[in-house]
Amino acid sequence: MLLGFIWKMLIGLTALSLIVYAVTPEASLSYLLKLFALNWGITLVSSIIWPYIRGVRKGDPLLVRDEEIPILFSFPNAVALSNGRLKGYVEMKLVDGTVGIGKIIKYQGIINNAEVELLEQHTAQIEMKN
After folding, report:
1. Which residues, in sequence order, are CB contacts of 81 under 8 Å at separation 6+?
2. Which residues contact 80 (CB under 8 A, 6 or more apart)?
3. Res. 122: pLDDT tops 90
4. Strands, DSSP E only, in the chain?
5. To the nearest 10°, the Cα dihedral for 108, 112, 114, 116?
6. Which contiguous run of DSSP H or E holds residue 30?
């Protein structure tokens, strides 16, 4: 989910705009409004391109695509164990404790997590030696 990223970006750019407005000698209110419009523009563009720059990283929550449950009502049900890119493969640990490999279908959005299609699933084997 990108909500945290968008919020931090917007707060940081707003603070920067207020500092620029304060130190500019002949700045008007319309100048401040233009700075705020620039903030929103930068925030919107960066929220669109950031997932493509970042990809899927180890530790990210993932949504394993399942045809039975609508995507709108789904919660993340896996965690990435490796890094990956769109249409690439990522190793993941599912909530039931099994490990699997999935194909990345969609990057994270503003309110949803990255989606993967489960290709292979197996239980983790633990060896005990005496």
Report:
1. 58, 90, 91, 92, 93, 99
2. 56, 57, 58, 59, 60, 61, 62, 90, 91, 92, 114
3. no
4. 61-64, 78-80, 89-94, 99-106, 114-122
5. -150
6. helix 29-54
For tokens 């993941």, the residue is 92
Q: What is the pLDDT of residues 43-92, one digit of tens each?
A: 999 999 999 999 999 999 999 886 565 555 568 889 999 999 999 999 99
User: How far apart are the C-alpha atoms of 8 and 17, rounded to whole Å?
Assistant: 14
How far apart (Å, rounded) are the C-alpha atoms in residues 39 and 33? 10
* Confidence check: pLDDT of 116 > 90: yes
Q: How far apart are CA 130 and CA 121, in angstroms?
A: 29
Secondary element (H or E) of residue 88: none
pLDDT band at 110 (very low <50, low <70, confident <90, very high): confident
Give the Cα separation of 2 and 27 in Å (integer).
33
